[in-house]
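Worked example (supplementary).
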Amino acid sequence: MERVIVNDVGPRDGLQNDPATVSPADRAGLIRDLVAAGVPAVEAVSFVSPKAVPKMAGAAEVIAALDLDAADFSALIPNRKGYELAREAGVRSVAVVLSATDTMNRKNINMDLDTTVRVCSEILEQASRDGVNGRAYVSVALGCPYEGDVPEDRIRDLTRTMFDAGATEVIVADTIGAGNPAQVKSLFSRLVPDFGADRLSAHFHDTRALALANAWQALECGIRKFDASIGGLGGCPFAPGAAGNLATEDLVSLLHQAGFDTGIDLDALLAVVDRVRELVGHPVGGRALAWLHNHRAAAAAAG
Amino acid sequence: MERVIVNDVGPRDGLQNDPATVSPADRAGLIRDLVAAGVPAVEAVSFVSPKAVPKMAGAAEVIAALDLDAADFSALIPNRKGYELAREAGVRSVAVVLSATDTMNRKNINMDLDTTVRVCSEILEQASRDGVNGRAYVSVALGCPYEGDVPEDRIRDLTRTMFDAGATEVIVADTIGAGNPAQVKSLFSRLVPDFGADRLSAHFHDTRALALANAWQALECGIRKFDASIGGLGGCPFAPGAAGNLATEDLVSLLHQAGFDTGIDLDALLAVVDRVRELVGHPVGGRALAWLHNHRAAAAAAG
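After joint prediction of all chains, the assembly is encoded as:
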C-alpha cells in the first residue's frame, strides 16, 4: 500500500481559529494524543506575538512538552523574530505563509505581496543555512476572498520563488475553501510536472462540501501529503467565509477506503476527536464522523 | 459548456424512504417545482402495490397531474403488473431494479438473482417492443449490506444482460453508499469502454461523505448522467445503513463550479429544498446547503 502523509494542523490552524482558548499544556496533550494515534506530522504552534494572537501564546512551552523525535512537528513563523524564537525552542520544521494576492497579504499581515515574498524568502534562506526544514504555504491559491480568482501562473511563480529560496516543500492552500476539483486538477497538473509531487502538499477547506472531492483529485494528480485538522477544527479569521478545515478523520477515512496507508489508527483518531470536543466545549467532527462511529460500533459488536 | 443530465429521484426514492407520507397531489406539485427549476429528468413514481409500499400509492394520479412533455418522467417498475399499470398511465420511461447480489434481491423483492434477472429482462423486452424507454438499475454495485464486495465482473455481466434485453440505459447504483472513488474509478473504467459513457448513469449515496468525490470521479470517467435527490431525501429501507442520497443541490453546485451546464437554476432549486422541508416536516438539505444559502444571500446583497 502506498503511504500518504497526513499533517494535522488542528493544534495550530484549528485552535487559533476556534472560539475556545486552550492552554499550552492542553495543546501539548492534544498533540501527543495525535502522535499516539499514529499521525506522523503536526502543525504544533505559531511563534506569533501573543498580543496579536493570544490563543497561540506559550508556543515554546508546547514545544518543550513534546518528544521532538516522535513526529514531524512544525511551527508557523510570521517573521524573523518568530523564526529566532522557534530556533531557540528547538523546532526542526518551520512554515511561512505567503498569500497569493496583494490584498490578502495586507489584510492578513499588513504587508504587500512583494514584501511578503521577501520576508518569507529570507526566513527560508536562513532556515536552509541553519539546517532547519523550511516549508512555505502558498495560500488563497484556489480563490481569494478579496480578489477572487488567482492566476495559475502566479501560483506557479510564487511556488518557484519559495523553492528557490530553499523551501523543502510548498503547501498549496485553498484557505477559504473556494476551490473545486476541476480547478484542483488544472492547478496541480501544472505544478506537479514543474516541481514534483513529492515536494508539494495540499491544504483544503470544506466550506463548499468539496474538500474530499478536492483531496481525491489531488491524489489523482500524484499528491501524497495533505494537511487536515482533527475534528475539522478551524478556518481563518482573516479570510471571510473560510469555515471548516478538512477534518483529519474524513481524510483518513477516504484514504484507508481507497487503499492508501497512513500509519494512523482510525479508532484512536476518533477518540482524539472526542477529547477535542471536551477541550473546546462545542461539537466538532467531520462529515464522515457519524458513519465512522456507527461503523466502529458495528465492527465492535461483530467481534 | 458540456451538459450533464441530473435525474432527481427525490419524489420516488427520496419520499418512499422518508418518515413522512406525502399525498399524490403534493408529490406532483414537488415534481412540477423541480421541472420549473430546470431539472430535466425526474423519477416520479413507483408502480408498486400500495399495500406493500403505502407511501407510493397514487402513482397514476401523480402521472396524470404532470405535463409529460415537460421533462423525462420515469416510473419504477417492480414487476409485470407494475409495467402494465405504468403503460395505462401513459408513462414513457420505466426503470427496473436488479440488485447485484442474491441476498439483496431476496431481501428487497423476495426473488433470487436469476429470477430477478429474468423478470427485469422480460419487462425491458416488452418495453422495447412497446416503444417505452426502459432503464435498468444495477444496485448495490459498490457493496452489498449482506454480501459485502461485489465482483466487477458480475456488474459488467449484469449490465450487458440488461442492455441485451433492450435497456436504453444502465444506472450503476451505490445503493448503500459503500463505495469510494478508487472503486468508482476501477468499475467505470471497465464499464465505459464496453458500453459507452452515454448509456451509463451513476447513483450515489452520501453515507460515508464520499458522494461528491465519487460523482467527481465518475465525471472523470466520462459519465454525464447522475441520479440525485432534492434535499438529500431518502435512502433504502431494505438496505441497512443506506441513509442519505446524494443531494441534488450538492451535485448541481459541484457541476456548476466545475464548469458543467445542467440547465438547472440553483436559486430555484434551493427554493424547492425549502418546500420539501415543509412537505416532510423535518430538516432536509445537502452538505453544501448552508454555504449555498450564504452565497446566494451575499450575491443578492451585492446586487
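Two points are worth noting when inspecting this output. Chain A touches chain B at residues 180-183, 207-210, 212-213, 215-217, 220, 241, 250, 253-254, 257-259, 286-288, 291, 294 (CB under 8 Å). The domain at 5-301 of chain A is CATH 3.20.20.70 (TIM Barrel).
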